[in-house]
Inverse folding.
C-alpha cells in the first residue's frame, strides 16, 4: 500500500490514483514491459510510484498528468477542488492512451474475442468492439475496465431495436435502500415519451437497459448531486453497501466483490474533502491522504459513498 501527500485540494486526485494503482492488474501492467506504443512520462511516474510502494508526493504525478493534453491542463491546472468522477474518467482515458497495445497485439486480442462468439447477438456486439478498436485503439483499459451496455427499444406491435454501447463506468441514481435497488432502477423498463414506433406509428415505445458484457472491474458513480436552478444539492440518503453483487445474463451468473469506496464529505462535488476505503488482503482500510487506519466492512460510509469499484469473480 502507498500513501499520497495532499498538496492543497489534491484529495480528489489522490484517492483515484491510489484506487487505480491498488489493482493487481494495474500493478501487473506497470511492472512488466507489455508491448505498448508509448512509455511516456506518466507511465514512468506511475511505475516509479509502484516500485517505491511508500509515501509519495502527489504533485509529481499531478504535474505529469496536467501536461498530458489540453483537457488535462484545464482539469488539473489549479488549486481548486475538482469532481472525483471527472477525475477518474480522465485518468482512465490517460491510462488507455499510454497503455495502447501495438497493432499485432490488438489483432491477437480481438481475434481471441471473436473465437468466443457462440450466437448472432454476440456477433453483433463484437462488431462494435472490433470497429471501436480500429478508431480508438485497444488497450489495457479496454481489456479490464470496459464493459458493454445493451439497449432494447420495443413496441407492443412486435417492433424491436437493439443497440450496444461501450462504457468504463456506470452512473446510478440513488434509489431504494441498497446498491442492488440502484441497479434494479437502472435496468427497469421505461416508457419513451412522444416516440412513435417505426412499424405501427403509435406512441407505445419502451426502453430497457442492461449490462451485456461485464468488465473485470466495474466502476459505479452514484448520482448524489442534483443540479437545478437553485444550484447544486446533495442527496445524503443512507445507502446500504453489500460485499457482493450478482448479475444474471444469458443464463450465466456474474459475481462482483466490492473492493473500493470513494467518500465525499461536503455539500458539492467541487467543495469538501475526499477519502477512500480500500480492501487489501481481506482487510478494509480507510485512507485520508497520507493517513490510514484499519476499519471493518460495517464501518464503510453509507451516507457519503460516491464512487464504488467492484472486481469480477468469474
Amino acid at each position: 500500500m502507498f500513501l499520497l501527500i495532499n498538496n492543497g485540494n489534491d484529495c480528489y486526485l489522490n484517492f483515484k490514483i491510489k484506487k487505480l494503482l491498488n489493482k493487481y492488474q494495474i500493478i501487473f501492467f506497470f511492472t512488466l514491459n507489455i508491448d505498448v506504443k508509448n512509455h511516456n512520462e506518466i507511465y514512468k511516474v506511475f511505475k516509479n510510484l509502484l516500485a517505491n510502494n511508500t509515501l509519495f508526493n502527489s504533485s509529481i504525478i499531478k504535474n505529469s498528468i496536467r501536461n498530458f493534453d489540453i483537457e488535462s491542463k484545464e482539469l488539473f491546472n489549479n488549486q481548486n477542488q475538482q469532481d472525483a468522477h471527472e477525475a477518474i474518467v480522465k485518468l482512465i482515458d490517460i491510462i488507455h492512451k499510454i497503455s495502447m497495445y501495438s497493432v499485432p497485439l490488438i489483432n491477437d486480442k480481438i481475434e481471441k474475442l471473436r473465437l468466443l462468439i457462440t450466437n448472432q447477438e454476440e456477433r453483433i456486439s463484437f462488431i462494435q468492439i472490433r470497429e471501436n478498436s480500429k478508431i480508438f485503439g485497444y488497450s489495457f483499459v479496454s481489456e479490464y475496465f470496459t464493459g458493454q451496455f445493451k439497449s432494447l427499444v420495443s413496441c407492443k406491435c412486435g417492433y424491436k431495436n437493439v443497440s450496444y454501447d461501450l462504457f468504463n463506468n456506470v452512473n446510478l441514481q440513488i434509489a431504494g435502500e441498497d446498491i442492488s435497488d440502484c441497479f434494479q432502477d437502472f435496468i427497469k423498463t421505461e416508457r419513451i415519451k412522444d416516440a412513435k414506433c417505426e412499424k405501427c406509428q403509435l406512441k407505445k415505445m419502451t426502453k430497457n437497459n442492461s449490462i451485456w458484457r461485464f468488465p473485470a472491474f466495474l466502476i459505479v458513480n452514484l448520482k448524489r448531486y442534483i443540479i437545478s436552478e437553485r444550484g447544486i444539492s446533495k442527496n445524503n440518503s443512507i445507502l446500504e453497501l453489500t460485499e457482493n453483487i450478482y448479475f444474471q445474463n444469458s443464463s450465466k451468473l456474474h459475481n462482483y466483490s466490492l473492493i473500493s469506496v470513494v467518500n465525499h464529505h461536503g455539500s458539492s462535488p467541487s467543495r469538501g474533502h475526499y477519502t477512500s476505503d480500500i480492501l487489501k488482503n481481506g482487510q478494509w482500510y480507510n485512507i485520508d491522504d497520507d493517513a490510514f487506519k484499519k476499519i471493518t466492512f460495517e464501518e464503510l460510509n453509507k451516507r457519503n459513498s460516491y464512487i464504488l469499484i467492484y472486481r469480477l469473480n468469474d
